[in-house]
Amino acid sequence: MNDTGNRRLIDVHHHLVPPGYAESAGRQRIQRQSGGRSNSTISTWTPQTSLDAMDQCGIATAITSVSTPGTWFGNVEESRRLSRDCNEYGARLARDFPGRFGAFAALPLPDVEGSLREIEYALDVLKVDGFVLMTSYDNRWPGECEFAPVFEELNRRGAVVYFHPTAPACCQNLITDVVDATVEYMFDTVRAVISLLYSGTFSRCSDIRFIFSHNGSAVPLLQHRMSAPWHSNKVFAERMPNGPQHELKKLYYETAGSTFPESFAPLLQLVTPRNILFGTDYPLGRMTVAETMSGLMAQGFGAEELRMIERGNAAGLFPRFA
To answer: Could you say which DSSP state residue 7 is in?
Structure first.
């Protein structure tokens, strides 16, 4: 183990590939949506490969989640079954390796009824640590009114909700030879945040702890432009009485693939290190775990700030790993 071992990091963006998931989701679809990663990366994942990568960089705990494209493929029963299978696998992993793994449960959105059932089962039976959602579903973004019952229940439960970016159907295969993730992951995160912001979901569901990937993608850079409509619209003012900046500053942002100065500079103009979490995107990230670590260390954070980013902030969200 290298010299980061004594920091005992918590990785909040760490993927699992449950047996059968790749077949159900379709390997080519996963490969395309995850930025062109090779099928071998998907097919060779095991809990042990995760543990090996974690041990090499001093990661104590990984909160696992399925990656894009998630568990919705247009068929209600299939998506409910796939969500349940993935969630039971993730919860079993957490039981089999206590302290090493936590679990974000997948929901079969846009199936609202199925999602409400899965929230109940995942929290009350499986005892998961939170939920993973995609930034959009069937060209619908999370603040739309049809999804409100799901967020109201997550809010009632005080849940942690982690958003993973995806490439919406409207914006796939737009640029010749460029994989969708290169552009769309950044901007679908922006769409999701704007949707939750201007629908009033962030302000209405203030007991949900929201996490967004990749240092917020383009959200910090565009924060002022995103805030502009609030100043000239009474409806928006009623939905978020404290204003857009107040809501954006409450969110958590994780570091996967983004430990560069150009990613941290705008983020630190929006939030302090108390709202930054450590994430790696293992095993699908373009940066290795070691590269993510070294990039973080190069940003000039003080010792206390690093402790918050590497572990302290996540321990506050997931007390069983404190």
So the answer is: G
| pLDDT tens digits, one per residue of 205-236 | 999 999 999 999 999 999 999 888 887 788 89
- The CATH fold assigned to 5-316 is TIM Barrel (3.20.20)
Residue 58 tokens read as 């001093």
Task: Tell me which amino acid residue 206 is.
Answer: S
| Assigned token pair, 240 | 């978020």
**Spans of all domains in the chain:** 5-316
Give the tens place of pLDDT for each residue, 75-107. 999 999 999 999 999 999 999 999 999 999 999
Give the H/E segment covering residue 224: helix 223-227
Full strand arrangement of the beta sheet holding 160-164:
9-15, 59-65, 101-106, 130-134, 160-164, 209-212, 252-254, 276-277
Q: What is the pTM of this model?
A: 0.93
Query: CA quadruple 104, 219, 309, 45: dihedral positive or negative?
Result: positive
Residues 6+ apart with CB under 8 A from 103: 63, 64, 65, 87, 90, 91, 93, 94, 126, 128, 129
Place of tokens 């996963």: 30
